[in-house]
What does this fold into?
Amino acid sequence: MGVATTIAQTPKPKHINRAIELLENCLKTTTRLPLLAVNLSGTSINDEDFLDFVMSRLASEQVARALCFEITETAAVASLAKATFVMRELKARGCRFALDDFGSGVSSFVYLKTLPVDFLKIDGHFAAHVATDAVDRSMVEAIAKIGRAMEVATIAEKVENAEVLTVLKNIGVDYIQGFHLAEPCAIDEVFEP
It folds into this structure.
């Protein structure tokens, strides 16, 4: 199991610039970059200038491979054609995508085969109660199983204690995120030498 790091909640160009800048600086001292996630809104996906802006900033293939854009399932489904286009264009440059809050939408599995994602972030409501609620555990098991079948890694959010972590490991969730591992911190602290 690994840890997912998120840099920003708002996909403003300055946040994307900052993420790329941090990765470029890191590349000066190491060849192995961490995977850095940046949350995108539906507004960003639908912004005509967004894709051009990101493409213009991605000079290094290594930096592109270290960027993972997170988009909520709801935003992706609301603009399915546009989201799919943006995802495919950025994936062609090496970027990765996570479908955030997966399982919260009414048609989660219907659109999954359409979206070119690398990660499914299991909605925190299910993951948080996986050790005490049989239905939530079944939802997480189903998402993990679908992820394996599609060769898409799974990430569980809201992992806040050892019991939940143990259950998620037994289910086969690939990565975890939550207070049990670490408290949130400023991104500069993560990249301090």
The chain has eleven helices and eight strands.
